[in-house]
Amino acid sequence: RERKAYDARFESAVTTDSHRIEVCANLGNTAHAKDAVERGAEGVGLLRTEFIFMAHPDAPDLDTQISEYREAFDALGHDRPLVARTLDVGGDKPLDYWPIPQEDNPFLGLRGIRLALTRPEVLETQIRALLTAADDRPLRIMFPMVKDVAEFHAAKAIVDRVQQDIKAPDVQVGVMIEIPSCAILAPTLAKHVDFFSIGTNDLTQYTLAIDRGHSQLSAQADGLHPAVLHLIKMTVDAAHAEGRWVGVCGELASDAQAVPVLVGLGVDELSVAARQVPMVKARIRELSMADSTQLAERILMLPTAADVRDALEDM
Ligand code: PEP
Ligand code: MG
């Protein structure tokens, strides 16, 4: 019996009407990849590489980064993908050795891919380290805080250059959907990227104009706000029209009330803290895709996040 219970963790999450949703883990530390696998994660859906940079007094060099990333690839093996988000600093994530000039609005300033593109050599070293560490294991590279296709192309050009240089195999390259402009222009963007991963923490912040860490307002920064859900729907529909997959890697993915809504909107993958993987898988197994789709359609008609929460509570 005990052995059976143990194995259930490694089974995929399939709805009652046979629709599979991939459940992956978010990591800030590659040493935790083994634990994520043991909890049933089917891959890493978001490696927050900035934490690796923050753990060093200076930018980690190529070899240091290779050995850090390799630890995660070794734990994941050949069958579980790793989505590595390139360095995402600025805004709420300072990096001591990368000072950013004083800005009136850091959340609207130099952060994410905008900041990384001001130091392309740092991005290039990171991409070289990721491609080298992956070897032939399934690496997916993802850029943070992208606002349009031009930023994606600028960052992707670095991947292409390094790939040619070291003759690395092709990998999927995608973007985070964290800025409303990307959700609105998802039909165009989807023609250029391999996948989207929706960062609902920042997407909610920028859609509702509420600082995600604000002491009084952050409770109102609810990813179940219908405006955010409409952007998620636009993203999923645009991606699927081009045959791309879509994940959600923000907090909303591990909100038990939100899981049926995200499944109903057609999201292909949920990436959550490793300890939440069993709960999210269990939640998916209780759902039917048909009911979730109907639920999502109804929820999209509601006017506020409170109405959405009330409706979900009533069910
Ligand atoms: C997000 O914004 O939802 C996200 C996953 O990125 P982070 O929380 O690291 O900003
Ligand atoms: Mg973010």
From TrEMBL:
It comes from the Bacteria. It is found in: Cytoplasm. Belongs to the PEP-utilizing enzyme family. This is phosphoenolpyruvate--protein phosphotransferase. It comes from Larsenimonas rhizosphaerae. The chain holds residues 635 to 949 of 949 of the full protein.
